[in-house]
């Protein structure tokens, strides 16, 4: 797969945005349809506060129709019983179509969510295509098993698709997070009902049509825009949904578990919140590199990242030097026009999230942390929602900004005296999604990595990885894993077949 060359001028992107035709309807049983009630909601761009489109506001009736369509498609077997090599070709064709429409999808992503167009082009869209392609390529290379039994019996262990998967995805990486669910779920032969966030539904709606063009049978993929307390809840409670795969807040993830218990005990897989510690030890070989990575680890994507390195733990003897560099980098990352390719920091997704971030900043001030950078809303004249990169020093572990997920460009700096104290502070959280340690000592690196209670640990880097390694959390950061072959475990049932040969 090859990427498509992108226009470099902000004027070009603004003119393209003005000419863009946006689809806002749901996608059910192979076609675009309005919500059964006729209700819509405004899709507002965080760039400038303008309404991008009227989007179908799906509810119970729409969920019923989409799940019924998905079940019919599954039972018919055109996809669920297709040879893996056939599913492979369709998914790889879908990946090619995503790249062929890269400019359009990147523009939708930026307009809808507020991230810089450069990130949409370089990260989100190619990452989504890579994910779909990777699972397509992998699925005809996953073997079943024969149990080690005596000669008089045959024990077979086979994987089968679960059935209908309800995928509920967040707004921070709209298409990429959808792909992390769609790739393994579709590759395994399931039908999927996808519920994108009401804050950023546009790329999911568009990709549904591309999936049909790629050859996915009608009903195998349905997309229902709508709100969490209507469409999302109805999907999670539905008696004919076999699996819920959710990425979002820990609070909502707990509700998903409740909904499963209240309905049919459907499997629930969760990728939830984080408060990731980024530990910098005094023996780190390149402190400037560590500090630069720490800055990008919290400010990338406006801090709206579940693995954001929101807690910077620095050994006391080097704290001033590291913090100075972090602030220096932060000053270069002031929010700009997301449609300008030179912009590195974009808009917060909506007013609700912006106000939440600003309240956390005020909390940090009131609890006695030292504000050393940022802390205010900016670019007010744009009509959009922008918050400066914000850095706090002298943060105590018990402060609200050190314990709760902010999901914005706000960094809490804490100090420690030795490795044991660093580990203790790092693990003192309800979350366990990501963590990092910087050190030149290989023994210390292994010791700390093993001690950190997190699903991903980075050593001398931050938030690195690719499709070959699993992603997910410990504790209240979730259950199950996205990415890698391990993700197939979420979307398949293991069947043991015991045959008497005597």
- What fraction of residues sit in β-strands? 15-25%
User: Average pLDDT across residues?
Assistant: 97
Q: Tell me the structural class.
A: alpha/beta
Global geometry: globular
The largest sheet has its strands arranged as 14-17-18-13-12-20-21
- Helix fraction, binned, reads 25-40%
- Individual helix count: 15
Low-pLDDT windows of residues = 1-5
Count every beta strand, where a strand is a DSSP E run of 2 or more residues. Answer: 24
**Alpha carbon gap, first and last residue:** 52 Å
For the largest beta-sheet, the strand count, sense and barrel status come to:
7 strands, mixed
Radius of gyration: 23 Å
Give a written overview of the molecule:
The protein is of the alpha/beta class. The chain has helices spanning 10-19, 60-76, 84-100, 102-113, 117-138, 174-187, 202-214, 228-237, 250-262, 287-299, 319-331, 351-366, 400-403, 419-427, 442-451, and strands spanning 26-28, 31-33, 40-44, 51-56, 145-146, 153-161, 164-168, 191-195, 221-223, 243-247, 267-271, 277-280, 311-315, 370-373, 377-378, 386-387, 390-393, 410-416, 431-432, 434-438, 456-459, 474-475, 478-479, 492-500. Strand 5 (145-146) and strand 6 (153-161) form a beta hairpin. The radius of gyration is 23 Å and the shape is globular. 54% of the residues are buried. Mean pLDDT is 97; it is low at 1-5.
